[in-house]
Amino acid sequence: MSHLSAFNKFTRDLKEDGMLMPALFIGHGSPMNGIEDNAFSQSWAALAAQMPVPKAVLVISAHWLSRGTRVTAMDFPRTIHDFGGFPDALHQVQYPAPGSPELALETAALLQHTEVTLDHDWGLDHGAWTIVRHMYPDANIPVLQLSIDFTKGPQYHYELAAELYDLRKKGVLIMGSGNMVHNLRMVAWDKLNEPEFGFDWALQINDRFKQLIADGDHSQIIRYDQLGREAQLAIPTPEHFWPLLYTLGLKGKSDDVAFFNDKAVGGSLTMTSVILS
Question: Which residues form the Extradiol ring-cleavage dioxygenase class III enzyme subunit B domain (predicted)?
Fold first, then answer.
């Protein structure tokens, strides 16, 4: 079957069925969450059990930055171990979920304001598989990644995400994966085992972000660089924050907003996650 024929079949199968899939922002934290049975991984599994089973999962991960926008388009994306200094058990994990060249084409067609490259080299980085393997351990649901164009600003990413909204109506679970507060240089390594320890500035800005999200005030979140010293400490580099903008850009008028895994780790990270449904 040619890619065009497969694309036409996929678009016939991927029909709107009157149900809107939720959209997620997941605070993914340490790669170790991919193999640990902890409060975070348990919540990901419970979340999947509560939601409709998606036809596919599209992840926007903090760990795939590119010049231009790319989408994985291979039949079987490789499991990427994009980290160092962790136990061998983590490096040995494979998550053999299929991809979907057809959904890659559908995604590229929806993004009208940029040219999208169909990528056959990347795969699933730890911002994707460490979460999805807990949600769908049978690895029987297609999983794709959409890259983040590092040459563009926050408004661009927010508006680009809105163009993907129709995928939610066709059974695709779209997930931003990063962290609202992510400052590795300021981690209190001696307090990693202290439950929910957070520096005052981290907790304050995390609460500010949550309030703005609950109020639907996305404009201030997009202009996070104007939110003062706390935001500057929380987002020293933007790659872990940008996935949140993708999730917020997918919000529909009827969506409710809820938070989960709302905890700090090591003082300068937060795992706070968002579901739109």
Answer: 38-254
